[in-house]
Design goal:
With 111 residues, the protein is mostly beta strands. The chain is built from no helices and ten strands.
């Protein structure tokens, strides 16, 4: 759920990610980018961004306003199983079948 509690994000086996509006209970946007199941998703605490992890071994940063992926990270050797953004919004921790990684992914918010 986003910080304003208006949107919910959900991943699918196809890799597509859907944004749902809570008030209308309808899909407002479908985002394509992952090549396999989107397994882990979380909204950034202070903005119109969220992160996703996938079985395709990538982490993506999405901008809801731009309606697309603005950054992709690679480095895991196994499928991404979980993802957590720190409360200050500066870091993401991701876990795969084999590794845990910390990413300084939200530096673009300062621009």
């Amino acid at each position: 759920m986003d910080w304003q509690e208006e949107l919910v994000v959900a991943g699918s086996a196809s890799g597509a990610i859907k944004l749902w509006d809570l008030d209308s209970a309808k899909v407002v946007r479908t985002l394509i980018g992952h090549k396999s199941t989107a397994t882990a998703l979380e909204f950034h605490p202070f903005g119109d961004f969220f992160a996703s992890g996938s079985k395709d071994l990538t982490i993506k940063i999405w901008d809801i306003r731009r309606k697309g992926c603005i950054q992709t990270y690679q480095g895991h050797s196994g499928e991404i199983e979980s993802l957590k953004i720190t409360p200050d919004g500066r870091w993401i921790a991701t876990a795969s079948e084999k590794t845990v990684k910390i990413w300084g992914t939200f530096s673009f918010l300062k621009k």
